[in-house]
Design a protein that fits this description.
Helix content: 40-55%
Strand content: 15-25%
Structural class: alpha+beta
Oligomer: single chain
Largest sheet: 6 strands, antiparallel
Strand order of the largest sheet: 3-2-1-6-5-4
Number of domains: 3
CATH topology of the largest domain: Beta-Lactamase
CATH architecture of the largest domain: 2-Layer Sandwich
């Protein structure tokens, strides 16, 4: 009967071992696998409880990965301490009939748990390389103590368990590597996405002219990238510290642009004042949130992301994003918003620099224009002054009348010159065409031109062989002649000769103006007719020839400039006899 019972028990053990082997190959969850091992060991060895320890190589400890018993807490002990620690360190099995008689046994665990250990069997779990992976320990054989057969069975189980542990750890390692790879790929994708956005932003900054345009384009980029409903850039005003909307995109962008927030008001005001970001996905619970703005604009605010704008340590504003469409804002959104904020600061800085340059250029232009106007008025004013003095001394009434008439014509000329300058500044083109006989024109102008040239000792030579009629705006033609004459006088400060010749040519009239000055400098020639371009002449403003070119273009004429071999400069201006109607 005893032999038959032993055979039956052996068969059960074999069957249990087979089932355990199948289970070990089928289960990939390490925790589930080890729990199953502990249960099967307790059953096969007819033990009271079993504990499976794993080795923690980094901390040089063993710890109870799976333990049976009531109120079992995790057990940790250094390698070499206690029976399990000794087995893990030395790689040898231990089978004790009375644990308390062995000096390697640590009774502190029993004292803490209230459990009484009697018999004990403990074997190492070795990996393929021979390293100890852990320890399998069974306590208190139910019918006495653990036998040699129990020890052999546990060793057989341990070899299967070691393989299963290594396989499970390998699977977990692969999964961890895959997870790391996925995370790395996601991080790389985010980085590439951020770089693409930054490249687009740099292109936007380079192509926009105004700071507001740059900021608006930046906002469109970040709103699209984050996937939110609205965004804005607010700047701190230097005088009061209040916040004004420099740019806004979204449903209520036009209404928002006209708003102004008091210093520190709202989440965005707090961010601008303190220089810290704010990521708020439940704004109703945040005391900084201004509920009134959403109500006034009829724009419910679900979540807010705001980051500060700083320039050289100065807090100049904030970038705010509202209502992310999918869920709430996260750390990646905040990181991207900070990147965009850096470009927004650059845009604001570029805008400030451009405004400063534009203001400086405008002031210079105004100064140059005023200088030109004053200079242009000098000649008629000199003529008026001279004739008024002559009138004061002249007793002949008829002569005084002619002198007064000449004086009044100078006032008319000054009025016409003022209107032409204003029209030139506004880019207007308006001609009053009527018949002009050039012989009569130069008869009236001769004395005035001589007075202009006498200032530098230049001698005038007039040669008008044109006998026909020219249809032009006479006042503008006068202005053209005076501007070129003045340009020639400035080119001959020590005196010289100035020749004006008029002749018919190609169904039109050719005006030739030649001086004996130093000629047109090569570096100035390509830009000769641009505003404010001069060749260093004393008193020059660069407006005279720009006005000349405009008058020629308005009359559908042509103008050519050359430096003749004999020296000086020569202007060839051709006007058609009859202007064609422009569509």
């Amino acid at each position: 009967m005893a032999t038959q019972a032993s055979a039956t028990r052996a068969e059960r053990h074999v069957q249990a071992m087979i089932e355990l082997g199948r289970s070990l190959t089928a289960v990939h969850d390490l925790d589930e696998l080890l729990r199953l091992v502990v249960e099967r060991v307790t059953e096969l060895l007819e033990a009271d409880r079993t504990t499976l320890f794993l080795v923690d190589g980094k901390r040089k400890e063993i710890w109870s990965k799976v333990a049976q018993g009531q109120s079992v807490k995790e057990i940790r002990m250094p390698l070499g301490r206690g029976v399990a620690g000794w087995v893990a360190q030395n790689g040898k099995s231990i089978n004790l009939r009375d644990a308390y008689k062995d000096e390697r046994f640590n009774p502190e665990v029993d004292l803490e748990s209230g459990y009484k250990t009697r018999s004990l069997i403990c074997i190492p779990l070795r990996g393929k390389s021979g390293d100890v992976l852990g320890v399998l320990q069974a306590l208190n054989k139910k019918d006495g103590y653990f036998s040699v057969d129990d020890e052999k069975m546990l060793e057989a189980i341990s070899s299967q368990v070691s393989v299963a542990i290594e396989n499970a750890q390998l699977v977990l390692s692969v999964l961890d590597k895959n997870l790391e790879l996925v995370e790395a790929q996601e991080a790389l994708a985010r980085r590439v996405h951020e770089q693409e956005i930054l490249l687009r932003l740099e292109a936007e900054i380079g192509s926009a002219l105004r700071a507001e345009d740059i900021l608006t384009r930046l906002l469109h980029q970040v709103v699209d990238a984050v996937g939110c409903e609205a965004g804005s850039v607010l700047q701190v005003t230097e005088e009061t510290g209040d916040l004004t909307f420099a740019a806004a995109v979204g449903e209520k962008e036009e209404a928002v642009k006209h708003l102004q927030l008091p210093r520190g008001a709202g989440v965005v005001g707090w961010v601008a004042e303190h220089g810290n970001s704010a990521l708020i996905n439940e704004p109703e619970r945040d005391p900084r949130h201004l509920k009134s703005i959403g109500k006034d604009l009829d724009f419910p605010i679900r979540n807010i992301l705001a980051v500060p704008l700083s320039l050289g340590g100065e807090r100049i504003g904030a970038l705010e994003l509202l209502n992310k469409k999918s869920g709430g804002f996260d750390a990646d959104d905040e990181k991207l918003a900070k990147l965009i904020a850096g470009r927004a600061v650059t845009a604001i800085q570029v805008g400030r620099q451009r405004r400063a340059v534009e203001l400086d250029a405008r002031l210079k232009s105004i100064g140059q224009a005023l200088s030109g106007v004053i200079h242009d008025f000098r000649t008629p004013m000199t003529i008026i002054s001279g004739y008024v003095q002559l009138m004061a001394m002249e007793e002949d009434k008829e002569k005084r009348s002619k002198q007064a008439e000449t004086t009044l014509r100078q006032f008319d000329f000054m009025n016409d010159m003022t209107r032409e300058l204003l029209a030139f500044a506004r880019g207007e083109s308006k001609l009053l065409l009527h018949k002009v006989y050039t012989n009569r024109l130069f008869k009236d102008l001769r004395e005035l031109l001589q007075r202009e040239l006498e200032l530098s000792g230049v001698e005038l030579h007039l040669d008008d062989v044109f006998e026909g009629v020219l249809r032009v705006d006479e006042n503008k033609l006068r202005r053209l002649i005076f501007n070129i004459t003045r340009n020639a006088r400035q080119a001959m400060p020590e005196g010289g000769d100035f020749t004006i010749r008029v002749e018919g040519q190609d169904n039109g009239v050719l005006f030739l103006f030649a001086d004996t000055g130093s000629g047109i400098p090569e570096e100035v020639s390509p830009r000769l007719f641009e505003s404010f371009v001069t060749s260093g002449k004393e008193g020059g403003t660069g407006l005279g020839l720009a006005v000349v070119k405009k008058i020629v273009d308005e009359h559908q004429g042509t103008i050519k400039v050359e430096n003749p071999p004999e020296g000086g400069a020569c202007f060839r201006i051709w006007f058609p006899s009859r202007m064609e109607k422009r569509s």
